[in-house]
Specification:
Blueprint lengths: L2 H42 L4 H19 L5 H10 L7 E3 L5 E3 L5 H13 L1
Antiparallel strand pairs: 1-2
Length: about 120
């Protein structure tokens, strides 16, 4: 295979796969927006906080498998109300999945290491 043919083949395959990924991302964005709109609609029918929770639990049960959320309904509800989730620390993990990474407290870790060395 000539160098020119090799480069054209390589570029064609990479371009095709990139286009597929972009199409998949667009479909995912649309799907997520549809799910979000469904939740908004369910909330519109609620008249108090208890009904909001019931609507949320129903929405979660209907869509969590498709969304592949890493949290249970109760965790998401509590995080939303309590602000326990630090969105700045929500990152991609090393395996390519989404995951919450607890913020590091380097000072405490260093002090713990120093205490262990003293023993």
């Amino acid at each position: 295979m000539s160098e020119d043919s090799y480069l054209k083949t390589k570029e064609a395959v990479l371009k095709h796969i990139q286009q597929l990924f972009e199409e998949m991302e667009e479909e995912m964005v649309l799907s997520h927006q549809e799910k979000y709109t469904l939740l908004e609609d369910m909330f519109e029918n609620a008249t108090d906080e208890d009904e909001l929770r019931v609507a949320f639990d129903r929405w979660y049960a209907d869509h969590s498998d498709e969304l592949k959320l890493d949290y249970e309904a109760e965790e998401l509800w509590d995080q939303a109300l309590g602000g326990d989730l630090d969105y700045d620390s929500y990152t991609k993990d090393d395996e390519g999945g989404d995951g919450y990474v607890e913020p590091s407290n380097k000072k405490e870790e260093e002090e713990s290491d120093d205490r262990e060395e003293e023993l």
